[in-house]
Predict the structure of GTP cyclohydrolase 1 type 2 homolog.
Amino acid sequence: MSTPTLADVVAVLEDLYPPSTAEGWDAVGLVAGDPRREVRKVLLAVDPVAAVVDEALDWGADLVVTHHPLFLKGVHSVAATTFKGSVVHRLLTAGCGLYVAHTNADSAPRGVADALADLVGLVDRAPLVARADDVERGIGRVGRLEAPTTLGAFARHVAGVLPATAQGVRVAGDLDAPVATAAVVGGSGDSLFDAVRAAEVDVYVTADLRHHPASELRERAGFEAGDPEEATAATPFLVDVAHFASEWPWLAYAAADLTSRLPGGTVTTRVSTLVTDPWTARIGAGDR
């Protein structure tokens, strides 16, 4: 049985996560590597950072697949004198390629959104913002929880199933309030508040929530409920997790789907467990 080439692996990845479904501002696809080289080991990670490169090269990987792009903006040099250029040089010197699946993986079936939805227990679901030509593909997911619970219990469940980070999980709302429906978006999600409100869910799980959008969403919820003083009991509630943590669950899906579509036993995949979230500590008021 012949070993697949990098071109073969890329073809599978682009069938799973078509580049045409990425956002217009995104930079996805093959970043570095010779399509003719054979691929036996593939490391999957969220971020193309130096520590991930160390892991890949120590393991002898032939390809690194990351969610986040290495180059999201145009560059004029990839000299090894820059930190991003160094990543490229180290990979190529070792004969290891780099491939990125970003917003095209966010929206795909069994992509970032579905992986997060499965982990938090979201069933009977659909895209939060569907693509016009594909009812299974779109931004985020919305549906009902496997069993009704309270906001506090749900947030603790989310904290327990996602990778541990310094941030942990932040919550906006009454912890004792009942929740039965939810929306999830991996990565930064406060630009989708209008869609979340339209979906009329009890709770929204996403990352990178900023002060003003979150405050306005909660204030509006209280106002429209008829009692601004009871805003903590108005929906949608918010569960804010670390960006890295919200996207890491997808890696296992990508690894499984990649190997299932390649000749059996020819490629070994590995999901990096390195926490590449940039925040390293959180100090609360009681810790001062």
